[in-house]
Amino acid sequence: MLFGKKAPEPKIQMFVIGGITVNVYSQPKATKPDVPVAVMFLLHGRNGSALKMGEFVNGIYDEVHAHRRKHGGDAQDLYIATFDQRNHGKRLVDKKANQGWFDDPEQNNERHAIDMYAIQTGTAQDVSYLIDFLPSYLFPNEERKISQFLCVGKSLGGHATWIVLRNEPRIKVGVPIIACPDYLALMTRRAKSHKLPVGPPYFPKSLIDLIHRADPVVVPYTALDSSNPFLGKKILVLSGQDDKKVPWTSAKEFVDNLNVGQGGVKEVIVEPGVGHEFSPAMVKECARFVWQHALAM
């Protein structure tokens, strides 16, 4: 038995990759050194940071540890990577750019729709960039083999996870949490609640054009051929039934009709009585899904 009854404290390595500080967590002696490593990107929410994801890292490891004890050691190792999204944490440049629409001029961010899309699309690009370079930092002498990359994100990080699943063929397993793959559906609802038009200056034509090119909802996500980038992917969607910030109804049509094909997996859990939070039950389901569809061999 590699583990005792209590999961070991994760080891943390810090790398600066092209100016992005990446924290990589691992569990000492979780597996033998010749076992492949799965690397999970765990993305924080708006006004969050990589540092604030520590409790979720520990929660996921506790659950994975329990699965290892129950099912034995014949499973892949799990490394968890966190980093600050653009304009967050150590990368913060303008705090107001992370704010939403408010009646108070001191708090109001007129560019909310622009800023939020810029961050989530940028984060998705950062994930692809880090997939390119992280192996060289983690295992410069080929000490371990990375078998796969996964992406899990909450709120803003969940929006980015949907974009990653659309754009990054190297990510086969993803868990978007309290998130929406249809940016205009989400933001139109939010704009109307503030009595704002879905047009300039809040939604410039150039932004609308970009969304119509870049958003997950604009691809043929119901198709059964290679035009659908979600085919073969394994996706767990976690939402709160009482979420007011990112209502499940904004994502429901896309998720209901999303086709992942025979080789893919789509699971949807809308947790009753839960609002805009990454709940303990969601942490448990996330770890269970990752164990079943990424780690178990």
What's the quick description here?
By secondary structure, the protein is an alpha/beta fold. The chain has helices at residues 54-71, 112-138, 156-167, 183-193, 205-214, 248-257, 280-295, and strands at 11-17, 20-26, 37-43, 77-83, 146-154, 171-177, 234-240, 265-271. α1 crosses α7 (280-295) and α2 (112-138) packs across α3 (156-167).
Please provide a written account of the structure.
This protein is α/β, with parallel strands linked by helices and 297 residues long. Helices cover 35% and strands 20% of the residues. The protein is built from 7 helices and 8 strands, in the order E-E-E-H-E-H-E-H-E-H-H-E-H-E-H. The chain has helices spanning 54-71, 112-138, 156-167, 183-193, 205-214, 248-257, 280-295; strands at 11-17, 20-26, 37-43, 77-83, 146-154, 171-177, 234-240, 265-271. Strands 1-2-4-3-5-6-7-8 form an 8-stranded mixed sheet, sandwiched between helices. A hairpin with a 2-residue loop joins strand 1 and strand 2 (20-26). Helix 1 (54-71) packs across helix 7 and helix 2 (112-138) crosses helix 3 (156-167). The radius of gyration is 19 Å and the shape is globular.
